[in-house]
Specification:
- The structure is a single chain.
- This protein is 31% helix and 8% strand.
- The chain contains 1 helix and 2 strands, in the order αββ.
- A two-stranded antiparallel ribbon has the order 1-2.
- The longest helix has 23 residues, at 25-47.
- The protein starts with 24 loop residues before the first helix and ends with a strand.
């Protein structure tokens, strides 16, 4: 008689399906707040006029200091 309580391992072509995680109310609230922050940041970025001949990439003054190529300068 074989033991049928153990599930066979998936073959190499199959992937194991994991059940969805149950999130706590705090985690759901944190995810909703993060999504709202992303939405507001995207709206603000679209509303901001395009800079001509400005620095490329992300805003170099986002931390209150000037950052360029990994070097920070205080104002």
């Amino acid at each position: 008689m074989t033991d049928q309580t153990n599930d066979p391992e998936p073959s190499p072509g199959e992937t194991e399906v994991t059940p969805p995680r149950v999130l706590s109310p705090e985690a759901k609230r944190a995810l909703a707040e993060a999504e709202e922050r992303r939405r507001l940041a995207d709206a603000e970025a679209k509303a901001r006029p395009r800079e001509i001949n400005g620095p490329k990439g992300i805003e170099p003054t986002r931390y209150g200091d000037w950052e360029r190529k990994g070097i920070l300068s205080d104002f």
